[in-house]
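Format notes (please read before filing issues)

Several people have asked whether sequences and structure tokens are stored in separate files. They are not. Every record keeps both together, in the order shown below: the sequence lines, then the token lines. Line labels are part of the format and must not be stripped during preprocessing.
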Amino acid sequence: MATITASNSIFMLTVASLFPTPQQLQGFGVDDAFMFEAADMAETRVGVDGFGVAGYVPRKVPMTVRFLASTQNSITLFEQWIGAEDQAGDVLSASAIITFPSIGRKYTCYFGTLMRVSTMADVRKVLQDREFHIDWLPQGTIPAISAAPM
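Then the structure lines:
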């Protein structure tokens, strides 16, 4: 029987020109490890005469990854990705494989673009989580994210 355990999820990230071997991300935030925004599948219109139409829309899938401020390896990976883009003056795309053993699913993410980053931890009573935002983008007939059983 499947469970909904999140703690055994595995997130492997690759930035081909920087980390050609997939790197496992760890040290996620307390309640929010990584989240995907809902993506619009279609554009709809209703004419003044009351007839509706719909059209398929290729879509990006925005994602937020959150790490504890004390996390070293995963934050360092993102800081190196940021630094490499700054040095190149260009975008370095990523790919990822995320597995959820508890539900037996695997997701492959294609052409990830680093969009917004937390440059450093916010300083409050304790250091706050760091956030990194990635847009996963479709590439022609390849969707931004594909799902499959493990």
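For reference, the curators noted about this record: The radius of gyration is 18 Å. The first helix runs from residue 73 to 88.
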